[in-house]
Amino acid sequence: MNADRHWDHLRAAIAPIIGDAQMGRWFRRVTPVVSDAGVLQLHLESRFSLEKIGNSFNDVLQSEARKLGLDSIQLRLASAPPAEVTTEVRQLSLDGPAGPEEQSLTVAGATETAPGGAVARPLDGVLTPRPDGLRRDGLRRDGLRRDGLRRDHTLDRFVVGQANRLAHSAALEVLRTPGIYFNPLFLHGGCGLGKTHLLQAITRQFFIQGERRMRYLPAEHFVHEFIQALRQKTLHQFRKSFRELRVLAIDDIQGFAGKPSSQQELLETVDAIAQRGGQVLLACDVPPRKLDRLHQQLKSRFSAGLVVLVDPPDQQTRVSILRQEVVRGGVHVPEDVIHHIAGEVRNSSRELLGTLIRVVAECELSNSTVSLARARAILDPISITLQRRITIDIIVERIGRRWGVPPEEIVSRSKTRNTSMARNVATYLARILTDHSLFEIGEKMGGRSHSTVSSSFRKIQKAISTDSELRDEIDKMLKDLRG
Questions:
Q1: What gap in Å lies between CA 480 and CA 164, rounded to an integer?
Q2: Residue 354: closest CA among 141, 16, 56
């Protein structure tokens, strides 16, 4: 197998999907190599690039590689020895499930050995038996675990500060005395503040402590499974699978708003688990009392446990978050740059890390050293965006004004060509200018699903790579929104 030829074909296939800008930023310095086993390896010069490509472009690489007849792809740091299997290697396996002998477990840095004495790869553990179609390390093809848990959402990776200290303490108490004092534990706060991280970390820790009857999922998944059970007349199995759990963690509780049947099912599920001595963990953008279109009985049930606010991190915590990421990424970022970024990005831990990655990536692409002067040059053009909040409502209003479409029509069910295009552009801008999740954007855009929002984003991302007029129009909108 000729590595350069296969990489040329693969690069040509993914470029129209990913777009020129992303290709130039993340795939510019890729060295293709063929391993002894005939696997195509893509060697990258930075761990940031490895993480970014593995997390963001996994599906595209897999899909297009499969079409080209490739069996598997590995992402590897250029400096890593070929035989070394560590966190520096991201396996993008395209083959089917492994045999029972390969179902090994590694959790929180502790490695178990598989039958025959082979050391399991140092990735996070598998919480349930592996179904067909999943990767051998227990990850789904979208980079998440099949149970929805991200491997980097662990307690030791959760940076504790004044803003989240109470939530962290509550998590530790729940782990010590599950189902007794704080049941349910209800975390709430803005986007990107660590609620999901902490919810998944608690769930994972329960597994490490020996609990197996447990599950983590977003609210929309619960609703979907409930509706499917009603349609397929399997409600008994659905209730048995949920109500006999010892730990149930549900994220984005706002997804139950306006769904009375699902709310009633959730209420009965929470009560059943609590009566059995199990623990319920919940996360939401707002406290229970502010959840619109939610039954009062469910609000009261949520409020009966412990409701904890997670605030934006203070300066010291933001600095600690950046330091941890720098150490994990294995790159050199001076202290003055860390403090500068921490001072610029104040509202979201997620946005904070994204800004760090941007600074490091742009320095790498320009062959320059990470310095305060370079960081300022990179961040100054977007400093207004970082300092003032651009909301989805503002984006919809500006799009409506520029495209001549009333904002209420953009978020309606109208499918006229002009309205659909305006809606897709608004979705694209919301994704790149805010730190809202796909689910949150969908809710703001008229209650659209996660998959619909993702599809809209990809449509515009693909269109601007070939349509110069649309690209210029979106550039104008970006300048307008950023002031």
A1: 35
A2: 56
Specify the residue for token string 């499917």.
228
Cα dist from 72 to 66, 154, 274, 311, whole Å: 8, 28, 45, 42
Q: How far is Cα 253 from Cα 36, in angstroms, rounded to an integer?
A: 48
Alpha carbon of residue 32 to chain centroid: 28
Distance between CA atoms of 273 and 183, rounded to whole angstroms? 10
Name the residue with tokens 């990179």: 378
CA distances from 479 to 70, 81, 344, 457, 471 (A): 42, 45, 19, 19, 12
User: pLDDT for 123-134, tens place per residue?
Assistant: 222 222 333 333
* φ, ψ at 143 (rounded to 5°): 95, -10
pLDDT tens sequence across 356-415: 988 888 888 778 889 999 999 888 876 655 555 678 888 988 888 777 788 888 988 888
From first CA to last CA, the distance across the chain in angstroms is 51
Q: How far apart are CA 15 and CA 24, in angstroms?
A: 10
Tokens 């250029």 belong to: 78
d(CA 385, CA 434) in angstroms, rounded, equals 9
Q: Which helix (H) or strand (E) holds 217?
A: strand 214-218
Nearest CA among 442, 178, 71 for reference residue 434: 442
Fill in the amino acid letter for 196. Answer: T
Task: Identify the DSSP state of 391.
Answer: P
Cα(363)–Cα(46) distance, rounded to whole angstroms?
Answer: 11
Task: Identify the pLDDT of residue 86.
Answer: 36
Question: Residue 395 has which token pair?
Answer: 């984006």
* Beta strands per DSSP E along 100-163: 106-107, 110-111
Angstrom distance (rounded) from CA 459 to CA 17: 9
Q: 138 Cβ partners below 8 Å, 6+ apart? A: 123, 124, 125, 126, 130, 145, 146
- Sign of the four-CA dihedral 308, 434, 455, 147: negative
Q: Are 462 and 424 in contact (CB under 8 A)?
A: no
C-alpha to C-alpha distance for 432 and 211, rounded to whole angstroms: 39
